[in-house]
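Hey L., structure's done. Input below.
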Amino acid sequence: MKKIIVLLLAILMLCPLIVSCVGGNVEETETSVTTDASDGLLLSDKVKGVKFEGEEINVWQTTKASNAAEYFYDMNGSMEDGDFISLEIYKRNIKAEDYLNLQMNFIDTGSEASNAATDIRPFLQAESTEFDAYQLVQWNGMPLVLEGWFKNLDDSKYLDFTGDWWAQDYMDTAKINGHNYVMAGDIGIDMVSNTGAIFVNKKLLSENYGDDAYVNLRTMVLEGKWTIDEVATLSKNMWRDLNNSNTVDINDRFGFLCSDAHINGWYIGAGGKIIQRDNEGKAVLTMGDERSIDIMGRLYNLMHVEGAGEYGNNAGDTQLYNQTHSPILVQKFAAGEMLFSIGYFYTARNFTDMTDGFAPLPYPKYDVDQKEYYSYVHNIAILYAIPNTNTAKYDQTGAAFEVMASFGKQTLVPFYYESVLKLRYIDDEGDTKLVDLIYDSRTTDMSFMFGNTAYKIPRAMITDKRSNLQWYLTKEQKKINKELKSLNNVKF
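Output:
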């Protein structure tokens, strides 16, 4: 009866969206996969026909964002709260539970995302068996992994990381001593929703640059010619003194404003790197080369010299535009008071009531010679880890995440990507190419993954109004070297 109710509710809720099929096509990977579910969904052979005895898997989770502009879903999902994505999560969980004959309990601890690691550590230190897995917020959770609290997941009987429902490149960045200690992929939607993007107000663009301005901009982007210079050109003439105060303040119209947390998106988008692995797999600092110096110089000019927006001549008090003010900046874009909004795919959920049309763009290239766009995955992305204390239900926990990720790849993520991002948030079929372009350009950096000191340097340079990258690297050299040593000399 429970399944019938879920199915009927899903049909009723999705009819207004006129959604397309979201089953998706899953390409076979090097491992063998098999159709082993009643509705034809694919699974790894490792979990084919696996049945347990009704065990409950308890997962520590947080749903409380530290920043009002951010968003975390309850991974239990719901068939009652009216949220389409929440319903899809619920349906996927039920399907996975039924297949394996177990129950997943994502326990909302009330912890704020920025305090997640602090609140998890006491459980780990006490060797608690209360939780069979932990939901980690990437930037503060990965340091816990380095402390050795979690299992090497390559030993799992049922996890199969060759499946394309796992974010393999992303997980490779997170590896320690060549092994996987965290899971990232299609367990939820955050590997997609946390993809960096810039949104443009089509109405403002056409009012200021002509009726064909947006089509020309979209063509420019798709042709690979969207650069920091183009952002500056479009942005720097947008300021208007809306409140007639004869001074620049938050109530005015801007080309763009964004929080300090978004600076890394600009840096990575321009091809910047911070910490990468060398040929031997060791973490090395790559920031400080000629490329990174040029990028930060160009961003400094954009933000502080050209008056294009952000912290520059038209931005007023630099201390106003930090993370705590992100909701204000989202509201200004929704109200038609900014040409560009800097954010992530999930930011679009704030614009669905806009009367002005909007579209997503990738972060701009440094120049037209840059071969690719790069859209970094926000460091609030969710990862999952299994503690060393989970000995009684290790197999069940691994199997549960394997099946949830696989089913998520074929139902949950396609629903979000095709039916929410492309149909609910985007008002022009031609703009779906932009969504694909941004999604295909996803990337990360070891500095974001492990929350190192180095990843804070680009944002510090802009907020501190310092244009000398080498000064910061020299100032933080000892701390950065210590962190690199820690990454490269893990003893477990």
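DSSP finds 18 helices and 14 strands in the chain. Residues 394-421 form the longest helix (28 residues).

-- N.
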